[in-house]
Amino acid sequence: YAGQDYTFALTTSGNYDIRLTAKNARVQLIEDSKKSTGGLRYTVTPIDSGTCSITIGNQIDEKRIVSLKMQTFSVINYPVPPIHINRKNSGEIIKTIEDSTQIVCSYPKETGIYENYDVSKWEATVGEKSFSGTGFLLSEELIQYVNQADNEYMHLTVFLTVNKTGHLKSEAIYLIKKD
Predict the structure, then answer these.
(1) Would you tell me how many other CB atoms lie within 10 Å of the CB of residue 141?
(2) Residue 146: phi, psi to the nearest 5?
């Protein structure tokens, strides 16, 4: 994923000056790996979607690096993180909302994406009525309204703090239905 840090470890036998370079990615040598017997470790962070090429080379002198291996990867952007309320995903039915209900914005564990999102503010519309708040807690006013509503849709927009995925907004729609 674009913006995700990946760690590469390079080991060699012999007296080689190995370098790792990349196109469409930032490369950072992990300094403490210089002291390790397990080889050099690099953090590689793809910059943008498309392709990323990583080249391992042997530096012969100041001007020449002999390419030993090149690998190209497809890079995609993170999907928009889903919103969960009472463990319900967008598109699901909500019967009631408990007091102190939190907005959770995260990817399912099976995706392997472990980014945490902080909610800076949110806006909700239920029927013709609008609500808003800051942080990850829903307002008492919204909770009371949802708990009295029936057969209406709630549209929720969540604004996220700056994060490495670049997503600053996520949206969800729930059907409020008592039975």
Answers:
(1) 13
(2) -60, -40
Q: What is the pTM of this model?
A: 0.71
* Burial annotation 78-109 (CB, 10 A radius, 16+ → b, else e): beebbbbbeebeeeeebeebeeebebbbebee
Cα separation of 20 and 38, whole Å?
A: 16
Q: For 23-76, how does the pLDDT look when each residue is reduced to its tens digit (9 = 90+)? A: 999 999 898 887 777 778 899 999 989 999 999 888 888 888 888 899 999 999
Q: What is the CA radius of gyration of the chain?
A: 24
Residue 154: name the closest of 168, 134, 139 by CA.
139
In one-letter notation, the amino acid at residue 79 is P
One-letter amino acid for residue 62 of the chain = E
DSSP 3-52: T--EEEEE--SSS--EEEEEESEEEEE-GGGGG-SS-EEEEEEE-SSEEE
38 pairs with which residues across the strands? Answer: none
Q: Tens of pLDDT along 17-27?
A: 788 889 999 99
Residue pLDDT, tens place only, 68-98: 899 999 999 888 889 999 889 999 999 999 8
117 token code pair: 């999102």
Residues 109, 115 contacting (CB under 8 angstroms): no
Distance linking the first and last C-alpha atoms of the chain: 41
